């Protein structure tokens, strides 16, 4: 497997070094990238909807002020230059110095004010757009189903929040402002040259066509390279994240060199794309510089001929003004081509973020009326329930019928892939129910608003998440409960002594991920959270699989005591943790093969539970 990975990465490096543009070469590069990053690559021009999305998020009010102020600013600049020309032509200017100086100062002051308004409103519009795009993507990703996170590489998500948002934060707004400014300057140069020497337009038209062809050629190449750059970056982020997560395992098996080599190969692939992008930028600069020299030569030649043929109409000050604008024209055109290409390249980030903002999400918009006291009793009933994560895969379970009375302590066990966790997840509507119905308290959960449903259930997963902040924030983020109520819940969860001895007690700081607490303590904090919110059902999904026997016993006893009159569902591989349950269900290939009390099931010599328990004991 490792050799195949290296071969594929060497192929990408070779293809990126090659200057050939054959379709088969590109397809092999893309194929490797899609395999390694699982990210779909777009082709062709950036759709207009990406531009519409960005500008609509800027806000019509700020955009209108920006456009009006920018155009007015450029008009004042032209008027200022013409005023200086008129001043220099006036033979009696020495007698009217104050008049000319006052008007010039007035124009200059107006230009300064309008430039400030233009820059401020442009940046404000850009800030509004990036704020809206970020929040829209974040809100949508938080509502995506679990399947999205199980099938999407972490590096791809990180890429959206790091590289793509960085482009929108730092580059798009500034590039658009500069593009509009240089475009208006270019238009001004054409207008001034056309007024002074109308013949300039005859030569300017074909030159503009050449500029357009160069711009399109450069943009098409750069656009695809930028997409490859984005795709080639995602595997680096994914590999780094995966390596950081499994660092202990990598060191234990002494695979540091292997993972380092894989990282450098991925980095080389991205570096080669980055190199070609910069080489393309240099090519554009050289091509436009040569073309700009032609523009300057033609403009100067036409101006000199016009002044010779029409000396009374084309005066030396006007020629000076025209040549001054012409000398800057190649620079303006160069920057226009550069910024047009850059903006189209940057709009790819808007397109990708917009796509993230439109991913399918869970149904949070249900407005069904539910009694405030629902559910009084956590009677759970599954009727012919079927769960299937993907149409290309076999269903996890089909036609499953199960009834769990309120207050029952039930254990669910089975081999890996038997459907234990999926059964628990369908109670939270986190597993897609293809057929059948699930009832809690005589209400079909598909008719219950998702937030309301999940707020009535508590879950203790295998890997508990604790956020950086205070202990109190981790238990009561919305500040709905008093300190006395929180201390009472901590006492029920066997955590009162731990927290009272902790620096700051309830207001003690929790490190990211809860690193300053043991795995068992994090599980107990999760239990305390459920107790505090007075949920009617507790689901423990492999919650004790990474705990030692004593901590496991503490957690289960605390859960039973705190949820004494409520429903508790324990999903576990470790059978010893289920023997104290009132009832045990054994799943096999998505079907219930045994159902009864521990004593009843263990009394069957050939029973599945008894066989699993004997196998576990013999292994030990």
From TrEMBL:
> Where, by residue number, does the polypeptide cross the bilayer?
51-76, 97-117, 182-214, 283-306, 318-337
Q: Where is the signal peptide?
A: none
Q: Which InterPro entries match?
A: AAA+_ATPase, ABC1_TM_dom, ABC1_TM_sf, ABC_transporter-like_ATP-bd, ABC_transporter-like_CS, ABC_transporter_C-like, P-loop_NTPase
**Gene3D superfamilies found in the cross-reference section:** ABC transporter type 1, transmembrane domain, P-loop containing nucleotide triphosphate hydrolases
Keyword annotations for this protein, in alphabetical order, are: ATP-binding, Membrane, Nucleotide-binding, Transmembrane, Transmembrane helix, Transport
- One term under GO cellular component: membrane
Task: Domain (ABC transporter): give its ranges.
Answer: 380-614
Residue span, ABC transmembrane type-1 domain: 65-345
- Location within or outside the cell: Membrane
The record's Pfam families line, in alphabetical order, gives:
ABC_membrane, ABC_tran
One function term, GO molecular function aspect = ABC-type transporter activity
Query: Where this protein primarily resides, as one coarse class?
Result: membrane
Tell me the membrane topology, using the record's own terms: Multi-pass membrane protein
UniProt name for this protein = ATP-binding cassette sub-family C member 8
**Organism of derivation:** Cacopsylla melanoneura
Q: What is the lineage of its organism?
A: Eukaryota, Metazoa, Ecdysozoa, Arthropoda, Hexapoda
């Amino acid at each position: 497997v490792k050799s195949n990975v290296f071969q594929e990465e060497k192929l990408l490096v070779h293809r990126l070094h090659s200057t050939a543009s054959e379709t088969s070469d590109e397809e092999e590069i893309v194929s490797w990238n899609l395999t390694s990053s699982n990210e779909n690559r777009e082709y062709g021009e950036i759709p207009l909807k990406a531009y519409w999305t960005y500008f609509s998020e800027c806000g019509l009010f700020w955009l209108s002020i920006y456009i009006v102020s920018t155009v007015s600013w450029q008009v004042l600049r032209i008027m200022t230059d013409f005023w200086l020309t008129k001043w220099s032509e006036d033979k009696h200017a020495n007698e009217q110095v104050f008049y000319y100086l006052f008007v010039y100062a007035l124009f200059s002051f107006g230009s300064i004010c309008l430039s400030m308004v233009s820059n401020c409103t442009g940046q404000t519009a850009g800030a509004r757009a990036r704020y809206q795009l970020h929040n829209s993507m974040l809100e949508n990703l938080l509502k995506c189903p679990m399947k999205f996170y199980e099938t999407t590489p972490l590096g791809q998500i990180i890429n959206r929040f790091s590289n793509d948002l960085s482009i929108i934060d730092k580059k798009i707004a500034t590039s658009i402002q500069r593009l509009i400014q240089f475009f208006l300057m270019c238009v001004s140069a054409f207008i001034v040259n056309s007024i002074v020497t109308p013949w300039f337009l005859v030569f300017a038209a074909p030159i503009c066509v050449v500029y357009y062809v160069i711009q399109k050629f450069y943009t098409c190449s750069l656009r695809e390279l930028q997409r490859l750059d984005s795709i080639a970056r995602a595997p680096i982020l994914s590999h780094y994240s995966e390596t950081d997560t499994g660092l202990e395992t990598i060191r234990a098996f002494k695979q540091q060199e292997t993972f380092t080599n894989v990282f450098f190969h991925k980095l080389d692939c991205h570096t080669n794309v980055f190199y070609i992008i910069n080489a393309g930028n240099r090519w554009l600069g050289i091509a436009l510089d040569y073309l700009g020299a032609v523009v300057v030569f033609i403009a100067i030649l036409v101006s000199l001929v016009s002044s010779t043929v029409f000396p009374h109409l084309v005066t030396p000050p006007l020629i000076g003004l025209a040549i001054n604008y012409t000398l800057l024209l190649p620079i303006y055109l160069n920057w226009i081509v550069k910024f047009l290409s850059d903006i189209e390249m940057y709009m790819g980030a808007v397109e990708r973020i917009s796509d993230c903002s439109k991913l399918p999400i869970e149904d949070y918009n249900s407005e069904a009326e539910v009694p405030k006291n629902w559910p009084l009793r956590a009677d759970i009933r599954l009727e012919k329930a079927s769960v299937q994560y993907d149409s290309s895969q076999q269903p996890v379970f089909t036609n499953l019928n199960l009834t769990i009375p309120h207050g029952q302590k039930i254990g669910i066990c089975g081999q890996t892939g038997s459907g234990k966790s999926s059964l628990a997840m369908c109670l939270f509507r986190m597993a897609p129910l293809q057929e059948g119905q699930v009832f809690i308290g005589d209400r079909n959960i598909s008719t219950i608003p998702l937030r309301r449903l999940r707020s009535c259930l508590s879950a203790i997963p295998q890997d508990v998440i604790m956020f950086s902040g205070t202990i109190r924030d981790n238990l009561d983020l919305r500040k709905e409960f008093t300190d006395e109520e929180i201390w009472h819940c901590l006492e029920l969860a066997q955590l009162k002594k731990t927290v009272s001895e902790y620096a700051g007690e309830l207001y003690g700081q929790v490190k990211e991920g809860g690193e300053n607490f043991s795995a068992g303590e994090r599980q107990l904090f999760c239990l305390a959270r459920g107790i505090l919110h007075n949920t009617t059902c507790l689901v423990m999904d492999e919650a004790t699989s990474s705990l030692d026997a004593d901590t496991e016993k503490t957690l289960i006893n605390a859960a039973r005591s705190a949820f004494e009159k409520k429903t508790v569902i324990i999903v576990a591989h470790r059978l010893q943790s289920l023997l104290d349950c009132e009832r045990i269900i054994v799943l096999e290939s998505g079907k219930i093969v045994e159902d009864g009390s521990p004593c009843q099931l263990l009394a069957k010599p050939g029973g599945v539970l008894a066989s699993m328990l004997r196998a576990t004991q013999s292994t030990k």
